[in-house]
Specification:
The structure is a single chain. The protein has helices spanning about 15-25, 40-50, 70-80, 100-110, 130-165, 175-185, 205-210, 230-240, 255-260, 275-285, 315-320, 325-330, 345-360, 370-380, 385-400, 405-410, 440-455, 460-470, 470-480; strands at about 5-10, 35-40, 60, 85-90, 115, 195, 220-225, 265-270, 290, 300, 305-310, 335, 370, 405, 420-425, 430. It has a five-stranded parallel β-sheet with strand order 2-1-3-4-5. The protein has a five-stranded parallel β-sheet with strand order 7-8-11-6-12. Strands 9-10 form a two-stranded antiparallel ribbon. By secondary structure, it is α/β, with parallel strands linked by helices. The N and C termini lie far apart (about 70 Å). It has 19 helices and 16 strands.
Length: about 475
């Protein structure tokens, strides 16, 4: 600690003789340790603390006061006023006695230290002067550290609130209000959560709220897209490996489960997880242990798992591409995010939010929407959900000039008249050279059209699957994803 800091003391003592002895005990450091107020009863002490918050650093109190609030009860009341205040108790009760039960009661109530009133030199001091003064210095330092920790937590809480505002779940439909209510309730629990919903509905956004509204909010929140990595790499990313465990393992790698210890791990597209990794994930969910490549003993971790998928895991279980026991471990609690077409009343709020956000980012004015443009946007089915709506708003801002009409909306949706499109002579597809549609939207549209094309020319779904070079179960699954069945 810094010894030039002033320490303000509140002394609670009802005997003038003992007040003088406390004053004499701290006299060697009277320039630094100052008794700012003396009161004779607990009620007066509490009133002084409430009247001057953050003024006193340390409370020195007699355990036995006449009447009113005394002992452990007074200690607890002081802590209710300010939990960072440090309390030193002086008492006659432990003269020539070692009373561990008494000491334990004081500490449980909130006292930091206690001592007997009567040392060897009864006429001059409270306890041994050096120990008594050191206890005051230690009490002051402990309070300083606690207040610093409180300040850091307040800043973290503020940062978390700002993050949640930036990543707000927009919408006042009944479905969205119910979803936010479920998230707030589920966040307080520790169970594994499975988030279900179509692509673009905001599953990672929901996972973010689950973490930052939970008791783990000050710990790490890590995410991994299980479909974005090759199958032979995903196990190392999740569980790590030891140095020398295989060719190329030149150094130890910490997996995401170890890195997220005490926090939350979000496993997006969980349906893409290979079988070998599913077995290890099941072990983590059951026993809180990870199997690390190159290590014989298990590594204990405490991680809350939140998973998400836009696939039908029940069908995947039936088709033996997803473990049934893992499905039940993941599906302890599930959250369904409705597609945008099922909550079209939220579209105006989403448009307002995205227009303001991206206009501020781009340094442009928020444009006006004609009533016909708004009607068209609300009537559109949004196969790409909120993500598609967000992309369309960005394109409207890039291409708009203050007033947005239906033609502008159609252009941004890639629904421009064919005369405006350029035709690629090699493949016969029509590309819009001005408005580039995101790859995932184009890929889904192409797959859907081509599947429809093949099915019309095949005698059966089995023949269509053979023509496409797909196993029948995969063909049926993909048709369902493309909403063709």
């Amino acid at each position: 600690m810094q010894f030039n800091q002033k320490i303000n003391i509140l002394l609670i003592e009802d005997e003038e003789y003992d007040v003088k002895r406390v004053q004499k005990t701290i006299a060697p450091l009277s320039d630094q340790i100052r008794i700012k107020k003396i009161v004779a009863d607990g009620q007066s002490a509490l009133e002084a603390l409430k009247k001057s918050p953050n003024y006193f650093d340390v409370v020195i109190m007699d355990y036995q006061l006449l009447g009113g609030i005394t002992g452990e009860n007074l200690i607890r009341k002081i802590k209710e006023v300010d939990a960072t205040l440090q309390i030193i108790v002086i008492t006659k009760m432990t003269v020539n006695i070692t009373d561990f039960d008494f000491a334990n009661r004081l500490i449980e109530a909130g006292a930091m230290w206690y001592c007997t009133k009567y040392p060897g030199d009864i006429e001059d001091f409270i306890y041994q002067p050096t120990d008594f003064i050191l206890s005051i210095l230690n009490a002051f330092e402990k309070r300083r550290l606690l207040k610093k920790e409180q300040s850091s937590k307040r800043k973290l809480e503020q940062s978390i609130e700002e993050l949640l505002q930036q990543k707000a779940l927009i919408g006042e439909s009944e479905a969205m209000r119910a979803l936010r209510s479920k998230i707030a309730k589920i966040a307080q629990q520790e169970a594994t959560v499975l988030i279900l919903g179509e692509s673009g509905t905001g599953k990672e956004l929901v996972a973010t709220h689950l973490h930052y509204l939970s008791r783990r909010r000050f710990e790490k929140f890590l995410t991994i897209n299980c479909g974005s990595l090759p199958h032979d790499l995903i196990e190392s990313e999740l569980f790590g490996f030891e140095k020398g465990s295989f060719t190329g393992a030149v150094e130890k790698k910490i997996g995401l489960f170890e890195a997220a210890n005490q926090g939350t791990l979000f496993l997006d597209e969980i349906g893409e997880l290979p079988m070998s990794a599913q077995v290890k994930l099941l072990r983590v969910l059951q026993d809180g242990e990870i199997d690390k490549i190159g290590r014989t003993d298990k590594v204990k971790v405490d991680v809350r798992v939140v998973a998400a998928t836009n696939k039908d895991l029940v069908s995947a279980v039936q088709q033996k591409t997803f473990r049934e026991d893992l499905f039940y471990r993941l599906n302890v609690i599930n959250l369904y995010i409705p597609p945008l077409r099922e909550r079209k009343e939220d579209i105006p709020l989403l448009l307002e939010h995205f227009f303001k956000h991206f206009a501020h980012t781009m340094g442009v004015d928020v444009p006006q929407l004609s009533s016909s443009a708004m009607d068209y946007l609300q009537g559109f089915d949004w196969p790409g959900n909120v993500r598609q709506l967000q992309n369309v708003v960005q394109r409207l801002l890039y291409n708009g000039d203050g007033m947005i009409d239906v033609s502008d909306v159609k252009d941004s949706l890639g629904l421009a008249p064919k005369s405006r499109a350029a035709v690629d002579s090699e493949n016969g597809f029509e590309w819009d050279p001005i408005h580039i549609t995101p790859w995932r939207e184009i890929e889904r549209a192409f797959r859907k059209k081509y599947f429809e094309f093949v099915r019309k020319r095949a005698a059966s779904d089995a023949q269509a699957a053979r023509l496409l070079g797909l196993a029948p179960p995969n063909f049926h699954r993909m048709c369902k994803e493309l909403e063709l069945k």
